[in-house]
Structure formats: structure tokens, C-alpha cells
Amino acid sequence: MNIRVTHWVKIRNHTIIKDTQKVFESLEVPFSQFADRLYQEMEIGYPKFHKMDNLSKLGFLCAEILLKNNTLEIQKDPFKTGIILCNRNSSLDTDKKYFNMVRTGIASPAVFVYSLPNIVIGEICIRHGIKGENSFFIADRYNIPSQVDYINNLFELGVFNACIGGWVELIDENYEAFLYLAVNNVNEGLSLSHIPETIKKLYHNE
Amino acid sequence: MTELKQNLKRQIVEQLNLKDIKPEDIGDDQPLFVEGLGLDSIDALELIVLLQQHYGIKLARAEEGPTVFRSVNSMADYITANKK
């Protein structure tokens, strides 16, 4: 196996970095405004975006940047392209919103459907035609060795030819997304070895 | 009736977060689902909530949904016939 990280994107502190390059920066504004500005700037034209909860918007936008001009590996075999994500607060941001709706009036079905963290994976899959295995793990911190090991095992088993891994966390106005694309046996993009040390460096240092 | 339809269009846009559509863009007899506005099953549930929240109407039978929510016209007819 020769699993390589070809591209990565990080959204943190109103700034977006892709492969070490700053690609977007916004003034300090609420997340909803930040997301709307980015959506307009990228000219995405996907009306369903406006119906998503904030966690899904965060993951969706991060994936848009990650996969821009870079969907070849998914197109080769969508059933062998997967997504493995994790975060700390699950879908608590939307859970609280839904809970308050239930307490005070009629609850919205459109809010209820986002009261699971793996919905963000579903939104990315629908948008990009990804049909392979996916999982969303909840943990107190981003356990990079565990995630890398899990993804590599699925490559070894022949389940994946490509996989999006990372961390998508949002609670109230605190948000952070980090996604990377790992592909088997390619020599394109950054072509970094898919080992914990690589992902740690990209996530913590860049 | 015209005022009811205008209100309905505004409420549909707000309730369903149709940010790319203006109320005046929705035709009175334009289909709301599939080839029309392209609404989906979750939107259908939101329309049921809309009827309850704004007009105090509970959809008695689920099988009526496709007829009631076919267009703004059909929704307005249903509201007029069932509003208490």
C-alpha cells in the first residue's frame, strides 16, 4: 500500500488554508455570516446549502474547497471512496436548538434531521457522489493515530481507493474544520505519506 | 384570497429557507415539488408545520398531502376551506 495525502484544508479563526496557501479570510463575524460569504465567494449555487445546520455547512464548505478541481479519484470509483470524520461535540449545537424548539413550540422537521453528526457526511456524499463506507466518531480530542490507523486498515482491506479524513467541530460560535484527501498509489498534489506524524503536522502546525 | 396567497408565498420562502427564491417568483399554480420549486420530503413536513403554526390547521389525513401541497393555489383553497 502506498497511501498518499494529496490535499488538505483547514478552517480556523475565520481563515481558510489549503495546502499551506491562505485561500479565504473574513472579518470576525458570526459563523452564519462567514459561511454565507464563503458560499457567495465560491459561487457554489447549491440551494440546499441554506437548509443545512451550521455543522453541515462547515463540513460542506471545507469539502468544497478540498475537492475543487480534484474529484478525479472519486469519479474513478465512488463506491471505494469513503469519509471518516470525528469531533468533540457531536451535533450538540443543533440538538440544543431543537430542544429549545420542542420546549417552546412546534419543532421543525428540517432542524430535527440535522440532530446527528454524521449528516454532514451525508451532505458531502450527496454533493460529490461519494458512495463508499463512512463513519463519524465522537471523542474528547482529535485522536489522529486512531483515525489514520482506521482509515489505513480500510485501504488495506480494499474498501477504499480514496478517503476524506478529518475533524469537523462546531459548537455555538466556536468552529474548526480540517479535512484531507488520502488516495492509494497516486503521485499528485502534495503526495505526503498517510501516517499519524503527517496528519499531526498538518493539523497542528500549518 | 390574493392576500392569502401572497402571505403563503412569503411564509414558504421563510419557513423552507429558500434564499435563492423571492416570494414573487412563485407562480400561483406552479408545482411546489419535483419539477416546480424542487421541494423534498422534509420540506413537505415543514409545510405541515407551516399550516399548523400560521393557520391552526392540522392535516387530518396524510394521504391528502400531495393534493393540498400541489401548489400555492391548492394550499390556499385548503386553508380557506378548513380555517376555523
Characterise the protein shown here.
The complex is a heterodimer of chains A (206) and B (84). With 206 residues, chain A is of the alpha+beta class. In chain A, helix 1 runs parallel beside helix 2 and helix 7 crosses helix 8. Chain A has a single domain, classed as Peroxisomal Thiolase, Chain A, domain 1 (3-Layer(aba) Sandwich). In chain A, strands 1, 2, 3, 4, 5, 6, 7 and 8 form an 8-stranded mixed β-sheet that branches. Chain B has 4 helices and no strands. The longest helix of chain B has 15 residues. Chain B has 84 residues and is mostly helical. In chain B, helix 1 packs across helix 4. The relative contact order of chain B is 0.19. Chain B has one domain: ACP-like (Non-ribosomal Peptide Synthetase Peptidyl Carrier Protein, Chain A). Helices cover 52% and strands 0% of the residues of chain B. Classes of the chains: A alpha+beta (206), B mainly alpha (84). Chains A and B meet through loops of A and helix 2 of B.
* Rg on CA atoms of chain A, Å: 17 Å
| H and E order of chain A | EEEHHHEHHHEHEEEH
Can you tell me the CATH superfamily of chain B?
Answer: ACP-like
Looking at how many chains there are and whether they match, the oligomeric state comes to heterodimer
Named at the architecture level, the CATH assignment of chain A is 3-Layer(aba) Sandwich
Task: From the 3D structure, determine the CATH topology of chain A.
Answer: Peroxisomal Thiolase, Chain A, domain 1
Interface with most residues = A-B, 9 and 14 residues
Strand composition percent of chain A = 25-35%
Mean pLDDT of chain A: 94
Number of strands of chain A: 8
Look at the structure and give the mean pLDDT of chain B: 90
> What are the low-pLDDT stretches of chain A, counting only 5+ consecutive residues below 50?
none
Give me the Rg of chain B, rounded.
12 Å
Task: Tell me what the CATH architecture of chain B is.
Answer: Orthogonal Bundle
Largest sheet of chain B: none
The domain count of chain B comes to 1
